Amino acid sequence: MAKAKAKKEKKTKKFQKPSKHQLKEWLIDVLLWLLGCLFYSAAVHIFTSPNHIAPGGVTGISTILNYSFGWRIGTLSLILNIPLFILARIFLGKKFIIRTAIVTTMLSVIMNVTEPFFPQYTGDKLLATLFGGVIMGIGISFIFLRGATSGGTDIIAKLLRAKWPHISMGRVILAIDFIVVVISGIVYHSIESVLYAVIAIFVSSRTIDYIMYGTGNGKMLMVVTKHSDEIAKAVTERMHRGVTILPVKGGYTGEEKNMLLFAVRSSEVAKLNKIIRSIDPNPFTIITEAGEILGEGFKLKED
Questions:
Q1: I want to staple 225 with a disulfide (CB 3.0 to 4.6 A). Which of 36, 38, 218, 283 is the partner?
Q2: pLDDT tens, position by position, 189-202
Q3: Domain boundaries in the chain?
Q4: Rounded-to-integer distance, Cα 123 and Cα 272, Å
Q5: pLDDT digit string (tens) for 214-253?
Q6: Following DSSP, what letter does each residue of the chain receive, concatenated?
């Protein structure tokens, strides 16, 4: 009897109606994903693809195949991502793949739909490279800020990390981009295409860093909340980052809470904030620059 009741309560909780805050967050997610996909699509159709610049990853492969066979870039991107979705679902779990699958499908559809409406710039290739990289970086930033990715190399990197945790995701993505760029030079019969693609990737990555994290190398977050244990557990499990819990007392209210102290890389701030707000929608958070972070998971102190 007790088991049946517990099962019923669990089922009721599973299908619980989302709160207004959750609906608002989801709406913001979708709007920023759409905007990010539009920026990304504009960068590809206006600047990189017409100038034979393959910006690495799945989009780069799709651009090369589009040049060789005339197949649409959006459709190719989705097809190339499908086997990665299946592997991610098996090895990384459902939560990771849902958002990425939504955004990747959204991006593929938008790239196909908007292709006839974007003009193609075929003037100065350096200008095309710089503007393409910046606009692409803006688009990817919007997607990253709302806790999703555009699939492709991000999935591959996470799959490899699941098997070999010591591997750097950044290096895996860089290696894949390098391979794609070299292939593009062979297909286009142009060393210039390789050089311009390298510039586009660099500009795009710097744009992402600037929009999302500013110019600092590390961040320190101080979070005052009533849900310290839940947040600490979630961050430890999902980000493999440590946290320090300090008891604090409000000077005005006299209310006792806990303060969580995090030291993270700049690239992890958006994900950390997402985890925190999924548990406590209204935490008191202070984010400061950390000039240097020494210790496990960061830079090792030199003797």
A1: 283
A2: 999 999 999 999 99
A3: 19-213, 218-290
A4: 42
A5: 555 678 889 998 888 999 998 888 887 888 899 998 877 7
A6: -HHHHHHHHHHHHHTPPPPHHHHHHHHHHHHHHHHHHHHHHHIIIIIIGGGT---SHHHHHHHHHHHHH---HHHHHHHHHHHHHHHHHHHT-HHHHHHHHHHHHHHHHHHHHHGGGS----S-HHHHHHHHHHHHHHHHHHHHHTT---STHHHHHHHHHHH-TTS-HHHHHHHHHHHHHHHHHHHHT-HHHHHHHHHHHHHHHHHHHHHHHTT-SEEEEEEEES-HHHHHHHHHHHH----EEEEEE-TTT--EEEEEEEEEEGGGHHHHHHHHHHH-SS-EEEEEEES--BSTTSBPPP-
Residue that is written with structure tokens 């739909």 in the block: 113
DSSP 148-216: ---STHHHHHHHHHHH-TTS-HHHHHHHHHHHHHHHHHHHHT-HHHHHHHHHHHHHHHHHHHHHHHTT-
- Whether the pLDDT of residue 63 is over 90: the answer is yes
Indicate if the pLDDT at residue 208 is higher than 60: yes
Q: What is the pLDDT of residues 122-132, one digit of tens each?
A: 999 999 999 99
Lowest-confidence pick of 19-33, 60-74, 176-190: 19-33
Q: What is the CATH number of domain 218-290?
A: 3.30.70.120
The mean of the pLDDT values for the chain is 84
Residues in the chain: 303
